[in-house]
Amino acid sequence: MVRIKKFRYPFIESVRTSEYQGTISGVSYQDIRDLVGVVVAVILSLLLSLGIIFHWPLAVVLANLFGLFVVGVVFAAFRVLAHPDRVRADEATRVLGIARDTLPFLRLGLTPETADAVAHIILDGLERVIAVGVTDTTMVIGYAGAGIDHHGAPRTIVTRSTERALKEGRMLVLSTPDEVGCDDPNCPLMAGIVVPLRIGGKIIGSLKYYYAQEIFLSEAELAAAEGLTRLLSTQLELHQLERQASLATKMELKALQAQINPHFLFNTLNTIAALTRTDPEKARNLLRQFAALYRHTLETADAPITLGLELEYLEQYFAIEQARFGDRVELITDVDEQSRKIPMPSFMLQPLLENSISHGMREDGSRLQVRVSAECGGQYCEVRVADNGRGMSVNRLEEVTQHPAAAEGLGIALQNVRSRTRGFYGEDALFSIESQPEVGTTISFRIPVEFE
C-alpha cells in the first residue's frame, strides 16, 4: 500500500493515494501544475535562444517571446490566485461563517429538525458540494441537495462509506462512486468526504459532503471539511454541557424545595394539632384548607408558577397562622395585575412570611404587619416582603447572611430563598436584606423579566 507524505494539517496522518485526490503518488496537484509551467517556460526559452543564435525568422522569434510572456503572466496569476495562504484564509472564513449560522440550531442538540437545517446551511456555504448529509450512528437524520430521493432523511444509512467511517472513526475521502458505496445506478453522488461527529471522544454520527464528479480535492477543502465537522462537534458538546448544567440547576432547585416543604409541613401540623384541643371544628377546617394547599404545592413543585398564584398560596398559609395568633398578625398585599404574571418557583414567599411571624413578633404583643409588594420597571421587577417586627442588629444580620447554618431556621430559610432566586432567574437576579432593631425587616429580590 502506497502512503503519501504527512501534510501540514495534523488531523491528516496518512491516507491511501486513492483516498486523497489532491495528490498523485505523493505529489500535490499544485506541484504538478507548477512543474508543467516550468517545463513550458524552459522549452520556450530554449526555442527563443536558438532562434536568436541561428537567426530564425523574426516572426518565429517574436512568437516564442510572446509565448514566454503569456506563460509568465498565467503562471504569476495562478500563484497569486491559488496561493495556499489565500486559499486557506478563504476556506477558514467560509467555515467560520457556516459555524456561526449553525450555532443557533446545534445549541438545541442534534435532532432531525436541527440536522436538516444544518445540512442546508452547509450546502449553501460550500462550493462544489452538491449534497450534505447528517447522520447519527444508524440513521440519516438530515439531508439537503442532490440524491434526496434515495439518500434523504429520515432513513437508515445506506452507503457503505458512512458505515465504514463510523466504524473506523476517521475521515474518509471518497474518490469514485464505488467508494461512495451507493447501490442506486442513477445516483448523482460521484465523490465525497465523510467525517465522524464526536462528543467527548465518542462518535455520535457523521457529516457527509458529496460532489457531482470525480474531482481533485485540495488540502484546503479537506481542511474545511474536517475543521467544520470539528466545530460542529464542539457546538454539540457545548449543548450537552449546557443541558447538564441546566439539569444540575433543576436538581438543586428541587433539593432546595424539598428542604422547605417538610419544615412548612411540620409547623403547620403542629398548629393544627394545638387547635384540636381548643377548637376542634376550626382544626378540621384548617386541616381541609391545608390539604388543598399542600396538594397544589405538590402539583406545581416541578414547574414555575406566577406571583399571583404564589400570593394565593401565601394567603392560604396565612389563614392557618392567623388561626394560631389571631389579630396579632396582619398580611397586606400590594401587587398589581401586571406584576402578578411574574414567574417564580413555588414557595418563594411562604418561608419569608413564616420567618416574619416566627422571628419578628414583638414581646409587647403589638400587631405584626407583613406587607408583600411588587414593582416593575424596565426589564426588572422587585418583589418585597417587609414587616414592622423586632428587626435585627448589624451583627445578627451578618450572622444570618454569612453563617446561615448557625442562625437556626431563620438563616437556612433565607439562604434557601436566596439560592433559589439565583438558580431560577440567573446571575442578574439580586437578593437583599435590610433590617433595623425595633423597626422591622425588608427582604427584596430584583429579578429580570420580559412581559409579552
List keywords for this structure.
452 residues; alpha+beta; 6-stranded antiparallel beta sheet; 15 strands; 19% strand; elongated
Structural overview:
The protein is of the alpha+beta class. Helices cover 53% and strands 19% of the residues. The chain has a 6-stranded antiparallel sheet with strand order 5-4-3-8-7-6, with helices on both faces. Helix 3 runs antiparallel to helix 4. The longest helix has 60 residues, at 219-278. The two termini are 66 Å apart.
User: How many strands, which pairing sense, and closed or not: the largest β-sheet?
Assistant: 6 strands, antiparallel
Q: What's the overall geometry? A: elongated
**Side-by-side strand order of the widest sheet:** 5-4-3-8-7-6
Unreliable runs, pLDDT <50, ≥5 residues? 1-28
Mean pLDDT: 76
The helix/strand order is EEHHHHEEHEHEHEEHHEHEEHEEHHEE
Report the sheet-strand fraction: 15-25%
The total count of helices amounts to 13
Indicate the radius of gyration in whole angstroms.
37 Å
Helix content: 40-55%
Give the termini separation: 66 Å
- How many beta-strand elements? 15
Which structural class do the helices and strands define? alpha+beta
Task: Sum this structure up briefly.
The chain is built from 13 helices and 15 strands.
Architecture blueprint of SSEs:
Elements lengths: L22 E2 L2 E2 H25 L4 H24 L2 H23 L5 H14 L3 E7 L3 E7 L2 H4 L3 E2 L3 H9 L3 E3 L2 H4 L10 E9 L2 E10 L7 H60 L1 H20 L5 E2 H19 L3 E6 L8 E2 L5 H11 L7 E10 L2 E8 L6 H9 L5 H18 L4 E7 L3 E9 L4
Parallel strand pairs: 10-12
Antiparallel strand pairs: 1-2, 3-4, 3-8, 4-5, 6-7, 7-8, 9-11, 12-13, 13-15, 14-15
Helix pairs in contact: 1-2, 3-4, 3-8, 8-9, 8-10, 8-13, 9-10, 11-13
